[in-house]
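Team,

Forwarding the record for the chain on the shared tracking sheet. I've put the sequence and predicted structure together so nobody has to dig through attachments.
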Amino acid sequence: METAATTPPPARSTDPGPTRGAPPATAPQPQLALELLVHGVGGTTPQEMLGDPRVQRISGDDTAACYRRTDDADAEQRPDDYRTEPVREAYCWSNLTSGNGARALWLILLPFMVANLAHWMRPDAPPDHRGQRIYDLLVRLLALTLTVLLAAAACEVALDLSAWQCAGTPVCVTGKSWLGFLNPAGGGWWSTPGRRLVLASLLPLLVVGFLWWLSHRTWSAYESASPPPRRPGASRDTPAHERTALGLDGFWYGRRLVARLRAAHSAAGVLTLAAALLVASLRADSRAGATALTAVGRTLTGLVLLLAAGTLVIVWRTARSEAARDEETDRLAVRALPYAALAVLALTAGYAAWARPAARSHGPLPGVAAFGGIAVCQSVLVLALVVTAWFLQRAARDETRTALRGMGGPAVALLSCAVAGVLSGGVAQRFADWIDGPATPGQDHAPIPGPPVVLSWQASVLPALLVVVAAVAVLAGVRVLAVRKRVARDVPGLYDPRERPDVLRTERIAGTIARAGLTDAAPVLVAAIAAVTLVLGAGAVAGAWLTDRAPGRATEGAAPFVHAAAETAESLGSWLMGAGVILLLTMGRRAYRDHSARRTIGILWDVGTFWPRAAHPFAPPCYAERAVPDLTWRMATWTEQYDGRLVISGHSQGSVLAAAAVWQLDLVTRSRVALLTYGSPLERLYGRWFPAYFGPPALTGLHREMDDWRNLWRFTDPIGGPILLSCEDGRAVDEGPLRDPLAFGRTLQNPLPAQILGHGDYQADPVFDRVRAELLARLGPGIPAQRTNCTGSQASSGRSSA
């Protein structure tokens, strides 16, 4: 997806320096300049970034570190050798996301990651707006329902389909040696329904425990990097009320918040498992008239509800504290909550395993209606999120460039629920088809009823959703053809008229520009999928509640065409849900052996895990909570120690990390730093989808408070774009669009066709060296004055007019 910048550094100067007879007092003191390179998504090696096979680590570890050429390792001791060139240093952070093949399994955590993104997509309303807290609370509650849904799906597979339905049915259990000891006909100790459920509950418990362990392990490695200390009242301190959100001390330090959410979500998963055990056993005791056992079951139910209420309180009160690092220790009640839930689960397991000779398992496990309740709860939360986002958007400071007019957060939150539903339903459907043999679960003459009806209804609407996606894709293809035809007329005019026009070459360049513009149409696709998902999902839940039979049988008596269409949709949707799960697992397995596949998966996490875990603690960890403090520490310590000039140069996602690190600097240090971005999604993606943090007011403030900022972009780049900022002094941030390819046809200087670079290799353009030299020249020995009256240009970018 992305190629690394590989331009070798310029030749070292041979200036002998001042003559030997010059008086030392009048000899000019050379001032060092440092160019700190930050790569983009997909990662690259320091050798490629620095253009030299011999590199040396200056600072950092095997996970993330700064490197220099071996010849430049001691540049600070030889400033005379660097009068006309900067010292080039590369910060490599790729191992934070895609360095280990085991991280490919994070694909299973995709719903949690998407839900976490919704937290950061709030409109750019004032910080003191009442809707801000409501928005955050709704997203946290929605994230909690995803954990409950995951635990319920694990219970569906292990408890309902395996231990309750198949193990309790002689026809199904026959021939399955791994379930034979649970067969009621054998009369073994584990053959009673309650004991079968207790044994099967180990699988969901392991799933919740694994997520807790993974979250705790990444929490120790990612959320523990602190920003440089600030001395209150000193010139290197900026008051909190004068900083933007990304400049606050505690923004990239979410250690306590993730710990609190991890305790709450772990307890929620364990309590879901306890509830599944309680429902079946308590119903059996009530029907049998066992007064004592019924009293015990109701007491345990009260304990479960009490701990569930405590979990909700913790999630309710766990909001981000970004003004300062939150290093307080959680109360004992918070830390003890998961252990209390485990204690209740142990008591519930003992209650469920009590001997009940007359107990029998038939039909689905009691309590499977919880899937419909979870879907309804998620729908209500999403609708409340829509209303809250609408009020926030009305109060937004700048709404002209916001994606979906502020509805991006609710749309993405709904998609997280849809992805979670597909994963849970797909696993249940495929497992039921496998365990039931050649029969179809839920149909006539099938040995087991199969998964809950609501999952079958959700599967039946999946083909309709894919039809909508296909329709949007067709419209996008038509748009590409139209834009390519329009742009092709202007391509030859960008080059030397002496170059011979080439029709095929022109169409290829125009097609690249047209496809790159599809990124700006992403809101249409997200809106279409979200709207259809909401409507069809509501219809699926309503249909499931209107009948206790599978969708195919619910249409009996209808027209044959309707009956056949319903059965086809259910079967096709069931296979599609299962195929989605298999596809994710296959990609994870392949990533263990294939480096290119691991790199592709790493790119997904590079884009999706930039933000801290503010809503869901089981989401993949935020690499920026390590990378941003690393860059901030490096810039602050180097400029203070050597009083030098520094240009931080970021490509693609590296430009986002660079900007976030500059925000963390105090004003004195920031005035000694210039920012160079290229292929940057700061405005095109982050500014539109995350307006509260990268909107025009925030980017304008960053431009005004630092010495200078230049941004390079191309029409052919599908990710990067212009920043759309300018100042009254006439110095705009954007430099471009750059010509791509550099040569249109074959010439004496370019006998072979020049490559269309697109998103990569910006350093191959001569404009890059010129802009970098201008930035270094502006960073003089004194502290530059801050610019004023910098504004964000709200005119449409040249990309649209292209």
